[in-house]
Amino acid sequence: MRPPRTLIHVVSTWVRRQPPKMKAFLAVVIGMAALVLLRAIVHDHDNIFVAAEAVHSIGISVLIYKLMKERTCAGLSLKCQELTAIFLAVRLYCSFVMEFDIHTLLDSATLATTLWVIYTIRFKLRSSYVEDKDNFAIYYLAVPCGILALLIHPSTSHHIANRILWALSVYLEAVSVLPQLRVMQNTKIVEPFTAHYVFALGVARFLSCAHWVLQVIDSRGHLLSAMGYGLWPSMVLISEIVQTFILADFCYYYVKSVFGGQLVLRLPSGVV
Known about the structure:
By secondary structure, the protein is mainly α. It has twelve helices and two strands, in the order ααααααααβααααβ. 73% of the residues lie in helices and 1% in strands. α9 (192-218) packs antiparallel against α11. The longest helix has 27 residues, at 192-218.
């Protein structure tokens, strides 16, 4: 006798059978519904951005727990951590010279823990690092982001170098998770702690994107004008949306795996 199918299994099966356009439409609908919910329950939308950085810190803490408990860094991308450290360091510098606030403190804590993860992978657990799977060339991301930052950056009164660095941190953050997704694409099997970490990144990216979208809606578009002229305001929003959708597929399979009671996440081809 076949066991009864759960609601999550029925829904996931139906979604999987839909054409790509329908899946994209459903993703947009779910995203809009989540935005409406956040707008209704969170009165100060700056708290959403703080929550995004806090969730990112939680994800890093999960990595630290994995490294300390299992004594292995298999399945982790060193290049992803290095890109994360780069954009955090640049953003932290910009925060110190342009606007010191609570985000500066959160970024400092996240950068410190990210550097610890990099040190542990590179030196303490080097023997378990699968370098051939972590084969995404960083310059494929860093060079285009650098060129884009030179061309499109804030038009504020700050020094031109600081404005370019600010833009660079935004663009690098949008694509920094790609090396980790490449590692998971190469292995197809994601162990629990790595899956928790990447899901935390997905949640953090969505909250950050929601913060910007809600701020623009609440200000009736005046926020974009306050950020300067030209393409920069639009590029900030596009970067937030891009980094959210990069992780959308993985987050779907993560939630499906959790509800299905699976400890190890197995990704089908073409997911990431």
